[in-house]
Amino acid sequence: MTAASATGAPVVANRGAITACVILAVIMQALDTTIANVALPYIQGSVSASADQINWVLTSYIVAAAVMTPPSGYLANRFGRKRILLVAITGFVVASVLCGFAQSLPQIVGFRLLQGLFGAALVPLSQSILLDIYSVEERGSAMALFGVSVMVGPVLGPVIGGWLTENVSWRWVFYINVPIGMLAFAGVSMFVQETKLDLKARLDWLGFGMLSLAIASLQMFLDRGEQLNWFSSAEIIVEALVCASAFYIFIVHTFTARDTFVNPRLFLDRNFAVGMIFIFIIGITYLASLALMTPYLQTLMGYPVVTAGIVMGPRGLGTMACMFLVGRLVGKVDTRWLLFIGLAITAWAMYDMTGWTPDVSQWTIISTGFIQGAGLGFLFVPLTTITFATLAPERRSEGTGLYNLSRNIGSSVGISVVTALLTQNQQINHANIATYVTPYNPAFADPAISQALSPYTAAGRAALDGLVTLQATIISYVDDFKLMMVLSLAAIPLVLLLRKPGTPAKVDHSAVME
């Protein structure tokens, strides 16, 4: 069994192997959040789906993962953390293979839903294991490694997915999980010890059901709102009402019933409550910016998919470098200063992106991306550390589940919102710019312009419309970058609400093998 050293640090045999196998599980799950994106046109052709229908391949996975993240703590307590982690890895790999075998849209959507259900537990349970096997002084470095596995996945996903799709087949974006999953399963089976079971643990089915319904209807509302013109559609109205009603019932039930699905006492810990808001904002700004960058590079700048992924790669390098650096600073420098620096760097990167046009150089894209990634590196490690620093150890599994739920919802909401705003602002900007395009504009006196962009010919009007659309799209991207910059700046006051942790509570290290 494990023991404690004179310094209070846990003595854990095979700690490196345990760390490696749980990190593999996290990487496998993190890659699948974005690896299928670039393959969507190929999947669409294979299963004969429309552009609207193929989006379910993404939304089904996000919704399922978000819904099943919170109960991971209950499942770990009731059936054992090791057992649930092994089931999650196995189910995720099997569902990945089934996605690769899928021959129709209902099949691949159903299998992606299954993949999200199993994959939801991988991140919170892996994080909980790492928190248990490292001492408080060592958790900064451990969370740095964990953060790299979580946050670099969305960067590597499009690169790996694009290469596999272009050189092999779109089905291999799912098959790639098989070798990773086998290694993770073997490592967890050999080195991780089972936790004590709580046979009296019960799941609050009403709370779980209402929260699940609220999340699912919210995602549907955000994903389909722009397509259906928001509240002019009966479907959108119904989804909004269902979301609001389910969330209201969930809140009332949580604060009036006993042994509820979400323990409201968790939020009495100020650091945990503030951390939940913080990670939600980080989910919006980081993954939403990635969702914008891919079409920006491919559509506006004409980059091939693999080239776009390579240009975005330094963003992940900046994250990794600063995560390891900050991991060593945690405990030596006030965590709140590290968070302030991270938010300031992120806001500056977004400010720089508001000046971009399709003529921006590759070096500018690479350097700004590296800086933005560095900002995330300053945020993720200290935020994770300070969020759980004052939380009781027995509530840590439940806390990590809610923490990752907040990050997932922030990511999905951020992607949906910036995408909807991009489409809406394109139409508004197009109309505004078009008001200045008249046959009496002095610019048409130039023979070269009047010949190529003549408003009196069909070809000229088409060229003018294309030019206006391009400018409207550029401005729309700038508006989205401004929004994320404002969100980063608005989060800075939250740093003042965090308190420096005192003497940490003892941690139960019985989750690992001797």
Automatic annotation (TrEMBL):
Pfam families: MFS_1. The keyword Cytoplasm does not apply. Its main location: membrane. GO terms for molecular function: transmembrane transporter activity. It is found in: Cell membrane. PROSITE patterns: MFS. CDD domains: MFS_LmrB_MDR_like. The chain crosses the membrane at residues 12-31, 56-77, 84-103, 109-131, 143-164, 170-191, 203-222, 228-251, 272-293, 305-326, 333-351, 371-392. It is a multi-pass membrane protein. Residues 18-503 form the Major facilitator superfamily (MFS) profile domain. It comes from the Bacteria. This is EmrB/QacA family drug resistance transporter. It comes from Mesorhizobium hawassense.
